TrEMBL record:
<feature type="domain" description="Beta-lactamase-related">
    <location>
        <begin position="37"/>
        <end position="299"/>
    </location>
</feature>
<dbReference type="InterPro" id="IPR001466">
    <property type="entry name" value="Beta-lactam-related"/>
</dbReference>
<dbReference type="InterPro" id="IPR050789">
    <property type="entry name" value="Diverse_Enzym_Activities"/>
</dbReference>
<protein>
    <submittedName>
        <fullName>Beta-lactamase</fullName>
    </submittedName>
</protein>
<dbReference type="Pfam" id="PF00144">
    <property type="entry name" value="Beta-lactamase"/>
</dbReference>
<dbReference type="InterPro" id="IPR012338">
    <property type="entry name" value="Beta-lactam/transpept-like"/>
</dbReference>
Amino acid sequence: MNFHWEFSTPEQEGLDGEILNSVDHFLKKKRYRLVNSILIIKNEKLVFERYYNKFNEESKNNIKSIWKSILSVCIGICIDKGYIKSLDEPITNYLEEFNKNIHPYHKLITIRSLLTMTSGIYWNGGIHYHCPMLTQLFNSQNWLQHIADIAVTNVPSSKNQYKEWDVMLLSAIITKASSMSAYDFCNKYLYEPLNISSGVWSASSCGISYTIYGKEENSDLTARDLAKIGLLFLNKGKFNGRQILSEAYINEAITPSSSNRGYGLLWWIFDDYYGGRGFGGQELNVIPDKNMVTVIQATPTSQGKSYESIHQEIIFNA
């Protein structure tokens, strides 16, 4: 299904173009040399698009943990298509490694627990890119069994802790439920309908599709690609006239969880908007009241810079 962008000017869509055009000076003032892309969609029209560091509309940037929000979309599609019955199903229905009575809490972990980062499985993320727990995992023969052997230190669904285990398990569940890799599922039911092109995600020997610490290009998307994900949510699951994801799941995804009022189902929730976040300044924002989607992409470094001030001081004031 072909998709064609509609273009407009900020002024035609009720924005202050002079403020938006001050972004170049703002980036220099803040020394934001690593910002590569800034994109704004208003009223479903592309009204502002700025690139730096030799990037253009076809340049791809690693999305980092925005991939988690995309994985959440895939879970929603799994439910819509009947591959998964409910968010509140125990993961033992899909992952036999968690059905061996290794830990009594395993039977309490649900798909919702993973989506809200409340599995309770012990996690120590290390510093920046150095994560000993992931190194140990990568050296293991069976990632699922390795994660199942880790202690569960909190009652599932009780405490939010941002960690990689939960999204890895979600990826495995998609594979078990649909009989295709999480990447193949995403590509067939999300990326292809949205005309998004992505490299094949890395996969473990036991079949877990994963991108965060895989090859960089495997989760690279253009700013326009990310904007399409935002438009999908802004339009209640429809894209280019086709229902890709149910409105019911979107409502679940952007509802704050009881364990963290700023987090839904792998989507970050703020006062007047919500979105995806990735290490090093990757931002996808959906602003329903303004009928807007915004994207910021940057080259990630070990310092993990954030560029939210671009939104707070420029975009939201336009």
